[in-house]
């Protein structure tokens, strides 16, 4: 799973191969994981609350185009 960014207490990754729609995975140190859809920034997780990944959401919003490009490149 390539890492796009490492922040203080989490990482933002793309699985290869992975399903659509384009999304990233935000992984916390305790291995909990949230999917963030790049088109809507919707957070999907049963265990991670959006407030826990607020810093990642800011990064994803700022780098959304780059993340989408990587997703498409690694998941044709």
Description:
The chain is of the alpha+beta class. It starts with a strand and ends with a helix. It has a 5-stranded antiparallel sheet. The chain has one domain. The chain is 26% helix and 28% strand. The chain is globular, with a radius of gyration of 11 Å.
Overall number of domains: 1
N-to-C terminal Cα separation, in Å?
A: 15 Å
Instruction: Give the proportion of residues in helices.
Output: 25-40%
Radius of gyration: 11 Å
The major pleated sheet works out as: 5 strands, antiparallel
Q: Brief description of this entry?
A:
The chain has two helices and five strands; from the N terminus they run E-E-E-E-E-H-H. By secondary structure, it is α+β, with helices and mostly antiparallel strands.
Give me the secondary-structure topology.
Elements: E1 3-7, E2 10-13, E3 23-27, E4 33-37, E5 43-44, H1 54-62, H2 64-74
Antiparallel strand pairs: 1-2, 2-3, 3-4, 4-5
What brief labels describe this structure?
alpha+beta, globular, 26% helix, five-stranded antiparallel beta sheet, 2 helices
